[in-house]
User: Fold O-succinylhomoserine sulfhydrylase from Acidihalobacter prosperus.
Amino acid sequence: MSSDSNKEYDGYDFETLAVRAGQVRTHEGEHSEAIFTTSSFAFASAAEAAARFSGDVPGNIYSRFTNPTVRTFQDRLAALEGGEACVATSSGMAAILATCMGLLQQGDHVVSSRSVFGTTTVLFDRYLRRFGIEVDFVPQTDLEAWQAAVRPNTRMLFVETPSNPLTEIVDIAALADIAHRGDALLVVDNCFCTPALQRPLALGADIVVHSATKYLDGQGRAVGGAVVGDAERVGKEVFGVLRTAGPTMSPFNAWIFLKGLETLGLRMQAHSAHAQKLAEWLEAQPSVARVHYPGLASHPQHALATRQQRGYGGIVSFEVKGGQAAAWRVIDATRMISITANLGDAKTTITHPATTTHGRLSIEQRAETGIADGLLRVAVGLESADDIIADLARGLG
Ligand SMILES: *Cc1c(COP(=O)(O)O)cnc(C)c1O
Assistant:
């Protein structure tokens, strides 16, 4: 849980917070943040132990829920997202699960975009239902459908913007209004933009969740997640789930993500610049039927993206003419780009959604969500944009 150690950074810019927020030096005077690999913490006396356990005195107890390296990461991410509290988790999915466990109960109803991460759909559709929580899925950009799906017992609206892989963008402020007109919270998965490009809490969202595995790390090294929001819901309720159920981030992984945050702003600018160049090039290729990238004037929500985001991000998807065979040809002709479904890495990755990440969907579901057989998703990395383009050009003849 976030502490008061960010107070001294009030008023600093994003770039400064990304490098410095949350750090508390020990008596050793270390300049880089220390990794506290300890499961528990010792107390000076029985009375101190009792005061810590009761919560009367703040401080470390046990690394399932209090660890200085993890706390530094939490405080830094809270500062970057503009939230009062942050809880770090063992994965992005654990962040979403902990949010649901902390803020929902049997009989509640959730409205989710149908374009969320596939595993999130499974978590909602299969597992939440088992515990008596109903979920409806609506088209990402159709605000009327969101409004129509809200019921008296709707407690949560869940969205990811831009979506994967089609980069559909929803108006966060408008969705927050729909949630708050009822008795619901708006939860935004801010994985694709990160706080460097988009700050959902400032737009009216209540909770931000992250897969730290992606851009927060930025180099494909570790799996982790986080929940950011206010002191009551995140600092108490979600933290309570973490403390009790234990989907905890390890201190070593927290340190990796902490170091990732220091370069987040620079990396997101570079990912966005390379993706823009690639998207513009793809749009000019005769063998490409359609390009999905919020930075293109042809993107249906280009104006909204420009207003809502500080950059367009690193994910580009495009549909080649000739269906699956043509799409696979592009993948198999690459020499440098990695064939893997991960994203948010310095290394560019390419994937064929219809037969990988979205392969579990029926043909009808894929048609509904626009996952065509010729669709490819590229998570544009930090290599030279010209080399990335040349690698894709090989199979696009
Ligand atoms: C990867 C991902 C997740 C899940 O995160 P893990 O760290 O893999 O558990 C959730 N949301 C989005 C948008 C993702 O890309």
